[in-house]
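Following up on my earlier thread - several people asked me to post the actual chain instead of describing it. Fair enough. Here it is, all 558 residues.
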Amino acid sequence: MKILLLVMPYMAPLCPPMGMACLKSYLQDRGHSVTAVDMMAELEIKEAAYKYLDTLKKFIPLFRQAYFFNVGIDVLKNHFMAHINQTDAAKYNELVKTIVYNNYYVSIDDNQVNRLNHIVTDLFTKEKKYLLYLLEKEKPTVVGISVYRGTDASSLFAFRLIKEYYPHIKTMMGGAIFSQELIPNTPNFESFLEKTPYIDHIVIGEGEILFQQILSGELPGNKKVYTAADIKDEIVNLSAIALPDFSDFDLSKYPLIPSYTSRGCVYHCSFCTEASFWKKYRHKNVQKIVSDLELSAQKYNRRIFVLTDCLINPVATELAREMIARDLAIYWDVYLKVDPHVCDPEYALLWRRGGFYRARIGIETGSQRVLDLMDKRITVQQSKAALASLASVGIKTTTYWAVGHPGETEADFQATLDFLTEMQDDIYEAEADPFRYFYAGQGSSNTWAGEYGHSLVYPEEATDMLLVKTWTLNAEPQREEIYNRLCRFKDHCRKLGITNLDSVGELYNSDERWKSLHKNAVPTFIEMNDPRCLDEHRHISHLLGAQKTQSEDVDFAF
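Reply from S.P.:
Thanks for posting it. Predicted structure:
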């Protein structure tokens, strides 16, 4: 079949979409003709999407702009959805005001609403023009769209348009959205099915085998929703499949190229949906991981790769040793969980020599009480030891924080600020998200609902425009206080000199700060193109002050 795979706005194009590239490779190996398009990478559409956020930012006081994108994406996604479903202009405008207020706690006026509406209209006009061009050019028999947080409205707009102009095209939807707002067997999901007749098939979970069997007729074609249960929970052998295929993407538009070593997660943290989406954790064998990275480095002329795994821990040491054995100058930017090995500077030194470049590490909070509520299975002291260990060998530490977890008190939040102050020199970047509650799918969704109850963020009558409902827990801290703390967190980081990489300038400043703090610092992002840095990781030979900590009695599940 002739297949067109799409990712719609708004997804920030930091790297080409991994899921789509994996699916393209898998389907092409089985005889299909596949074209993959990231519409957010198209300049006109990208500029229109950024214009929305740039304009919105002008309406928000500086103090309220903390982690503007992380919050702004919630405004954007709901505004876009209201736009494509509106039937009453007055109700639409009032809903836009409510959306902005319930995320920034700032009121905007009619003129500001109209300015945002104009940008949204222009964006969808550009999307329509480009989508019709693609459909005419590619003449697909099947269109598959991967849908994520922030892309749902544009994706539904595309599905509608396809069926309006080309009703014979089979439409298929998948993506991480089904681990968040659209968890199966929830009110949102059931309502969504009723309101989307223009989507022929929905694929939930790992897509390769399901997608292929739907196309080949091995699965009944009269169903709308397919899950792993339809293929008896069969999963892809990650060590036996080909490289993701990025050949359709202009890689010069992306600062990073992705790769991966595994799928799933061995943990069930209270606020996370990763485990519910992939169901089972597994990884490639290390020889396959390194061979894939080596081939990708040659094919795409890149030396640094972001690994999109939930966590690298189970393979980090073997990966480093294999990279050293093959004498490869390839760097890896990865997600990492605090564990005893991360706290050990000797392991950090080995990883650094093997190409470990940046650790994206979920610290979440400086409060032990909240860590326990999250079921993180780590201690505050281990988090501090992990940061010190990684920083001592120069590995960048991007830290992630969850502000406003149910039960977080002011004292707990102050413990987080104190943690930042104490560990500021060992933190390269700090990115915080407000706690978000989903009706199902998170490790503690059901427990919270029973303990606290939940209520709607937006009025019930807005559901026809928003299509899905957004809930908040009736727990402390309340939603407005969560956003207040998020602003305080950002302000505290600013005073400490810890930045968030929202621009090229901030990236440069963060890299220079890291170099000034750590003698063993990895090369800056700019220096990665300097041939003189090709073998610098081979010569890291001494540690700077980090001490090995005793492993505490914590279950790490590896």
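The first helix runs from residue 18 to 28. That should answer part of your original question.
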